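Example record for the data management plan.
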Amino acid sequence: MLKPLRQGLPPMDPSAVSDAASCALPARYEAVREARRFTRGTLDRWDVGDRFDDICLVVSELVTNALRHALPDTGPETSLLEQPVRLHLMHWSERLVCAVRDPSRESPVARDTDDFSAESGRGLFLVDSFSDSWGWHPLAGMLPGKVVWALFRLEDGA
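Corresponding structural encoding:
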């Protein structure tokens, strides 16, 4: 179990963010494709330079983890009317944060595996490898769930 971590997360002052975008995602696996499409379109407009592929990969992993591990036992293929997972992208001049909100208060768990050919179980390893830092924190107030975030440093002018 990972302890909540906010270190490295930029201030959430809305006036400090130069660009922001978010989208609600349905509780089905096709949402990963929708998240990638949304992220690619947003990053194209923001011109994030050479971090484009890293950010898209991490978004895919965070959304997949939310769908696999953070939804109720009914699973993501149920026809829930609500959209319990939300993707947020926030852009500052020299950094970008992608954050995925889900309804679970459970900590993300990094699996211990030496099998690098496995097709699952490496999501948080990839997030850690391709982002500059990442963490999570429970939602405050009456909202149930947590936010898992990843920070990317951008080159000047990106």
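Summary line stored alongside the record: The mean pLDDT is 82.
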